[in-house]
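Record filed here:
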Amino acid sequence: MTSNPNPSFDEIKWVIQIRRTLDEELEDYSEVPVCIFNVPKTLMATKPDSYFPQEVALGPYHPWRPELYEMERYKLAAARRIQKHLQSLKFHSLVDQLSKHEARIRACYHKFLEFNGETLSWMMAIDASFLLEFLQVYALKEGPVLTRASSRMSHIVDYAGTKSAHNAILRDMVMLENQIPLFVLRKVLEFQSLSLDQADYKLCSMLAGFGEDLCPFGMTEDLPEIEVAEHAHLLDFLYHLIVPRLKEPSELMEAMENENESSEGEEGSFGNSSYVHQLFEEMCKILSKLNHGPVRIIKNIIFSKPVKLIVKLPWKIVSNLPGFAILRYPVEYLFFSQNNDENKPENGNSISKSNIIKPPLIEEITIPSVSELSMSGVRFSPTNGGISSIAFDAKTVTLYLPTVSLDVNTEVVLRNLVAYESSNASGPLIVTRYTELMNGIIDTKEDAKFLRERGIILNRLKSDEEVADLWNGMSKSIRLTKVPFLDKAIEDVNKYHSGRWKIKAGKFMKRYVFSSWQFLTFLAAILILLLMTLQAFCSVYSCPRIFKVTTHQ
């Protein structure tokens, strides 16, 4: 006999609710997209406090939690104020109005809601009343009607954002699991004003101020006209305020194909040995000026016919000669790695269309830190745009990054935008990719300080170390994604950085000298061979006389 894994589950109640749902002839909302999700567990595990409301519960995911129940009296105060505005109507009339949209409300939530219709309608009406009471402070400039919050809420509502309770509620309002559909707010305002246009006007003014306060990027000055009907909830509005509108996939493919046609034929083959020839010529110039002691012997060896013949041969043939195979990978790394990178199919100018859609490899999101990039000559410049303004100019060696303002609310905003994007977006994860980029280039407080001094980070936190901890604590995406303009900037930065001889030499020493016993063994064998040759030479000829070294008896 099987036992019920959930003792509190009421089977009879469940059957009644399912039967009622199937029997009622309600309007079909199967086409309404789900827009309010549970936070993915992989993200929730990193920092739960950023996803669970800490002050006020909104909607059916976290109702009646004991630690949040204190705010219920403020919700009821907001409901009473709305009832006063209704004059002859009662608040339950608003509840009855919302109950007509029960099926649509349920369709917005990913989670199955076990509440009955009346409970859900009352919950939506009261939570929407509180939300509108709080949001009205952002419409101060729109007229005398919305001039101040009620006296009961005055100690938690603060337009200047200096009160901790105000910021705590703001953070709760942008949490993915704490959303209520935006059309519910429209219905409440419409029920008060009896005009849909007037309701949309008030709600747009609230959303504009709300977005300006919470948007981390300075891009709200030229805010486009807000279409309330196009946004699912507050977090969805904030997401589309930040995320640029990308081209359609077909347009992206066509653009990539045009770039391929213009760049086709410019890439060099892997076997091109021009770099080896250049190195050989430079060595000849240096050695031609020296003609003393053992240098003369080295010159005779280098300028011998066999060596000249080997250098003129293609590298593919030279690398397969006996004794040269062990040098193949180090030499290819130093001289041919740039050409090799250009010919990789993961390059931004790849001919394959599948690369536009195919998720990138984990290695592709790797990027040097700000300090490392600065040492290699990369400059950083702020932009006034959003994420879409990120680019790397190879001519001026400048990485352009949007100015981002960091305060006590930013981390919660970014984390929940990433969670919403991961749950809802079928295309590229743009916000996630941006956080990964910032996570990659900021490793220490020195990196954060560097970007702050360049005007890219506006730090309203306590220290640069908190900024570094914020970005380093951001979790990675739950799935790999490809964002064309961001990946292009990352790829160009990595290509420039890895192409610098200083960087190449350091990586070469680390990879093939300090970490390669084969290479060290080869060098030791060459050294022993040279010493044995020198000993044999000195046993036949008088080395002190040849090298003009005087000996004292």
Strands lie at 379-383, 391-393, 398-402, 404-406, 457-459.
